[in-house]
Design brief:
Length: about 140
């Protein structure tokens, strides 16, 4: 009744069948199971990356409690540009933090390492390559 009275003028662009499918996905517990599965997958990837990075001297790791990426700050004076170039030589794509600044892009000593789309073995391999190129 409330919808008919206050919201009937709103037109939905999502088909009823799609809405019903989503409803079943939520009510049937499928979404919750998917979330639980993905939490475990990402936690394992996170742990593999974090453990490997801890073996690299001269870096500080942050952001490990949020998202599917980590921030690596170089304590040895290496700039993000240098770190990105060294990683690229090894075939690893990393991004400088300043690329995400909204205002002036002042180069930092921090890079972003994402792990969402990498399998654990690929993470181990990449960290091994980064250890080689980022050692002091």
């Amino acid at each position: 009744e409330a919808y008919e009275q206050y919201g009937s003028f709103i037109s939905s662009t999502v088909s009823r069948i799609d809405q019903r499918i989503l409803e079943e996905f939520l009510r049937g517990g499928y979404y919750e199971r998917h979330l639980n599965k993905m939490r475990a997958v990402y936690k394992n990837r996170h742990d593999v990356l974090l453990e490997g990075l801890k073996e690299i001297p001269g870096i500080e790791i942050s952001g490990e409690n949020a998202g599917v990426h980590l921030l690596v700050c170089f304590q040895n004076g290496r700039t993000e540009g240098e770190a990105c170039a060294l990683a690229k030589k090894a075939g690893i794509q990393v991004y400088g933090l300043s690329g995400y600044y909204v205002r002036e892009k002042e180069e930092t000593h921090t890079v972003i390492l994402g792990y969402a789309n990498l399998k654990e073995e690929a993470i181990r391999e990449a960290v091994g390559l980064l250890k080689d190129v980022w050692r002091e």
